[in-house]
Amino acid sequence: MEHKDNAFDSTNVFVFFLRWWLHLVIICAVAAVAAVIFSSPRFITPKFQSTVTMFPATTGSLSRSVFVGTDPDFLAYGEVEEAERLLQILESANMRERIVARFDLHTHYGIPEGARYSKTYMIDEYRSNIKFRRTQFGAVEIRVRDRDPVMAADIANELAILADTLQNDLLRERAKLAYKVARTQYETLLAKKEEAKNSLRHIMSMGVSNPEYQVQMLTRQLAIDLSSSNKDGVDVLKENLDMLADHGGSFVFNENYLVHASNQLIAVEDRYLQAKIDKENVVPFHFILDTAFEADRKVYPVRWLIVFLTTFAAGFMGVVILMVYENLVEKGIIKEKAPKTSKS
Fold first, then answer.
1. Which residues pair with 122 in a beta bridge?
2. Which CATH topology does 48-177+284-290 take?
3. Secondary structure of 188-232 in the HEC alphabet?
4. 266: how many CB neighbours lie within 10 A of its CB?
5. How many CA atoms lie within 13 A of 27 on its CB side?
6. 119-147 per-position pLDDT tens digit
7. Which residue in 216, 95, 77, 219 sits closest to 160, CA to CA?
8. End-to-end CA distance of the chain
9. Which of 9, 15, 124, 151 is at a distance of 20 to 30 A from 291, taking alpha carbons?
10. Which H or E element spans position 146?
11. How far apart are CA 108 and CA 155, in angstroms?
């Protein structure tokens, strides 16, 4: 008896479906028809997908990589860090605003600009249609869905281009600052070098060319003139010695400064040229493997999957409801309708 109460074997299942097969068929058929109708383009806008695949490049200074060789090769593929940085650029608000403005997505998505919560609606729509991910091979993938296949391809390709543009804009701001500092330092040092050269040229015009050697020669000649009582010669030699005493120190200082400034100017000029190269050149931050193209087949909605899941769910719910109904009838909670009999 206990076995009969708890049993729900294959025979019971067969009898159950045999009893209610027509109802279940009707339920599944109605669900399938409804799914076909409500998944049509009249109710669900079909969307096309375009994809761009690109590998990140190593980041570093172009000038130091080419001329100094201290930075990584900018032609090499980037690692996980570069891929994550590229994803951060693609997902930034700056990038989103540029795409929204360039393709007038407010009009395209039907979200009036300036309306209440328009920014929130735009962000949600943007994120639902435009997605980024890092693949298992280290590449970055851009996926764009849109009801217009041309628009989807254009947005995907533009995102790849803007990724370089935005990164170069950010780095160019820093390069401009470095260039300004290096240029100021270079011009200041060059001006001081010219000033020292002019001072040295003026001192040499007064007859100072080698103070140490000149002092030795004049002192030797002064001793000779003094021993021979050559008063005129002594006076001239004293004037020359006084002149060397007044300007000899400046001559030595300017001469040594010119040597130091020339050596320093070479290093400063190298930094100045490197900063100029970084400011004026655009460096690619990724290598595009596959560009986006106009899709000829929609990816959303998948109608067969919608019809299948809807039919399966309706059939399952129908089975559950009918089982509950039978259980309630068996317990006497509700009464089963008796079949109508014809009067003879």
1. none
2. Bacterial polysaccharide co-polymerase-like (3.30.1890)
3. HHHHHHHHHHHHHHHHHHCCCCCHHHHHHHHHHHHHHHHHCCCHH
4. 9
5. 17
6. 999 999 999 999 999 888 888 999 999 99
7. 95
8. 42
9. 124
10. strand 140-146
11. 12
For 33, which DSSP code?
Answer: H
What are 326-341's pLDDT values in tens digits? Answer: 888 777 777 666 555 4
Domain ranges of the chain: 9-43+301-327, 48-177+284-290, 179-280
Backbone angles phi, psi at 287, to 5 degrees: -115, 120
Structure tokens at 306: 């919608």
- Cα-trace Rg, the chain: 44
In the chain, which stretches have pLDDT less than 50? 1-8, 69, 341-344
| Alpha carbons within 13 A on the beta-carbon side of 117 | 3
b/e string for 70-104 if b means 16 or more Cβ within 10 A? eebebeeebeeebbebbbebbeeeebbebbbeebe
Alpha helices in 206-302 (DSSP H): 211-227, 231-280
Q: Which residues contact 72 (CB under 8 A, 6 or more apart)?
A: 58, 60, 65
Determine contact, residues 162/169, Cβ cutoff 8 Å: no
